[in-house]
Amino acid sequence: MFAYLLLLAAVLSHLLPHAGWYGFTAVGGSLLYFGARRNWVEMVVPVALLAGADYYLTAHVYGYPFIWQAYVVTWAWYLGAMALGRGLLRDKATLLRGVAAALLGPTSFFLLSNFAVWLGTETLYPKTAEGLFACFVAGLPFYGRDLISTALVLTMVFALPAGLRHWFSQSAHAKNLA
């Protein structure tokens, strides 16, 4: 059930950063967590909810025409992030695996989405190495915020509970020795 509550937080944070959350979004971290905790069949739910949020933002908040083909890479990444969470964090969520997920999730989105923007726009970036570089440079502020957001969410859902369990077990052990 917690995976679904975190997913709701992700959808809301996907919509709310546009109202001044300094670019924080729980999307990456929640998708990694959802993949680690839910089964493959359920993974259609996050994609559908986040795709709906993408539609709402594009058509109603920004007032642009919604072209679904422009979102295929993003929607595929949603699935890929859940697969990454399942692969790295399902059976054993160690510190190393958590750090790897926190780095690989946002980095894969940064690389895929910026490459897709460069490839799919005719006028924004020239189809040269310099144009691709400029596209990646333009995405760096978003990448940094995504790294921080994902690390915070993963810390809250994996490291904090593990640390509390460890602390309480040590406290109980110390009481038993006394």
Q: Tally of extended strands?
A: 0
What is the approximate shape?
elongated
Which bin fits the share of residues in helices? over 70%
Give the rounded overall mean pLDDT.
Answer: 90
Question: How does the major sheet shape up?
Answer: none
Classify the secondary structure makeup into a structural class: mainly alpha
Output the radius of gyration. 19 Å
Residue windows where pLDDT falls under 50 for at least 5 positions: none
- Give the SSE string: HHHHHH
Please give the count of helices: 6
What is the straight-line distance between the termini?
Answer: 38 Å
Question: What is the percentage of strand-forming residues?
Answer: under 5%
How many distinct domains? 1
Brief summary:
Helix content is about 75%, strand content about 0%.
Explain what this protein looks like in three dimensions.
With 178 residues, the protein is an all-alpha fold. It has one domain (2-17, 24-172). 76% of the residues lie in helices and 0% in strands. Helix 1 (2-15) runs antiparallel to helix 2 (27-37), helix 4 packs antiparallel against helix 5 (95-120) and helix 5 (95-120) runs antiparallel to helix 6.
List descriptors.
178 residues, mainly alpha, 6 helices
Helices and strands, with pairings:
Elements: H1 2-15, H2 27-37, H3 44-61, H4 72-89, H5 95-120, H6 129-177
